[in-house]
Amino acid sequence: MKALLALLAGTIFGFGLSLSGMTDPQKVIGFLDLSGRWQPTLGFVMGGALLITFPAFALIRRRRAPVLDAKFYLPTQRHIDRRLLIGAALFGIGWGVAGFCPGPAIASLASGSPIVIAFVAAMIGGMLLANLFQKKAA
User: How many C-alpha atoms does 54 have within 13 Å on its Cβ side?
Assistant: First the structure.
């Protein structure tokens, strides 16, 4: 049941990304191009998502546990450290150069585009490398 609901949620998320145009790297790059032909559409998508997320998150946090698990898994670290800053910078650079972040990239795999496949492969490779470095540092 969990897997089926996860698939349904992912499908709805991917459909929403496609419908809003967020699987189009040019829209994302246009949003980040403040000194050129700026396209505000990504800002509206983010704003709409926040209008739903904030009240929903407040309601969900009132529950003792999520519907499909025994407990919530929330971040425990509250301070900004070097790892967070480096990770955020790498994420932002990748997003700005490629026009993809993980969700839209995975949703765009359905297109079969070699560029999307290469981006997702590089993203997975980066995650594996980061995991390897974290294990060696520990």
Answer: 5
Please tell me the distance from the alpha carbon of residue 78 to that of residue 107, in angstroms, as a whole number.
31
pLDDT digits (tens, 9 = 90+) for 87-99: 899 888 888 888 8
- Count Cα neighbours of 112 within 13 Å in the Cβ-side half-sphere: 0
Q: What tens digit of pLDDT does each residue of 4-57 get?
A: 998 999 999 889 888 888 888 888 888 888 888 888 888 898 899 899 999 999
Q: Are 123 and 42 in contact (CB under 8 A)?
A: no
Alpha carbon distances (Å) from 66 to 72, 76, 85, 118: 6, 18, 30, 35
DSSP letters, 103-119, are HHHHHHGGGT-HHHHHH
The answer to whether the CB of 124 falls within 8 A of the CB of 114 is: no
Residue type, position 54, single letter: F
C-alpha distances in angstroms, 116 versus 5, 30, 113?
Answer: 26, 18, 5
